[in-house]
From TrEMBL:
It comes from Psychrobacillus lasiicapitis. Pfam families: Sigma70_r2 (PF04542), Sigma70_r4_2 (PF08281). GO terms for biological process: DNA-templated transcription initiation. Coiled coil: none annotated. Residues 9-71 form the RNA polymerase sigma-70 region domain. Interacts transiently with the RNA polymerase catalytic core formed by RpoA, RpoB, RpoC and RpoZ (2 alpha, 1 beta, 1 beta' and 1 omega subunit) to form the RNA polymerase holoenzyme that can initiate transcription. The lineage of its organism: Bacteria, Bacillati, Bacillota, Bacilli, Bacillales. GO terms for molecular function: DNA binding; sigma factor activity. This is RNA polymerase sigma-70 factor.
Amino acid sequence: MKVTKEDYHLFKPLLFSIGYRMLGSVVEAEDIVQETFLRAYQSSEENIKFKKAYLCKIMTNLCLDVLKSTRYRREQYVGQWNPEPLLLEKLQTFDPSETLIEKEGLSIAYLRMMEHLGADERAILLLREVFDFPYSEIANIIEKKEENCRKIFSRAKQKISRVEGESLNYEKNTLIINRFIEAFQKQNMDALLELISENVTLFSDGGGKVTAAIRPIVSFSNVLSLLYGVIKKAPEDFYFEIKNVNCQPALVIYMNGKIQSILSFYISNEKIVEMYITMNPEKLPIH
């Protein structure tokens, strides 16, 4: 069976979804999707018995190669590393409902935790937990025994247990963020304390391209001081909108007529536990 143009349109969303979750980068995921189909087109017909599994294997292994080769680059990254925000309305190539398959495993908090996993752990966790692949298929894709895949999955789950309590209810989270905005604008500290964890942490990603906090900002008072400081220095044309980013409500912040940053949230038990502000221009969509 030869891979066809129809297969390209059918499987492209799934492959992009795997690639983005593994790498945290839209551009890299899109590039590897193209490379996957190129390799499949060039393959001899007898090698392709089950197209979906075959394409997923190529995609996953190309992502593993990238992860292993970019590990040093990530270690040299200036300051905090946040995944590239996925502003869904900017995805004109795909229907978002098809692209993302499931909202699980897509939030910035989840993708950020993936950085604590090894390459194989990341792949096996995603294929099993997010895409519900049977262990027999995962073993074939990763080229490891089923028993080993089960052990790696269990180990990976333990490492990211911190995000197990994350709320993925878009409507409820939007209400919380709207209340946060109102309390923040009115400087209502009592209301803010109800909405934000006392130990809240803010991760600021400038990538060395723009000014950003090198280390995480920890505690209610420190995070609010930083945010109020940013607002004071903002130009007159500063404004923000709540938009769907990674299937969760986030603040898209505009300055000087373009997107300046995206502020995403990790919400658990109806409280903001972490914030992720991405300012690196290489990670922001062009408005």
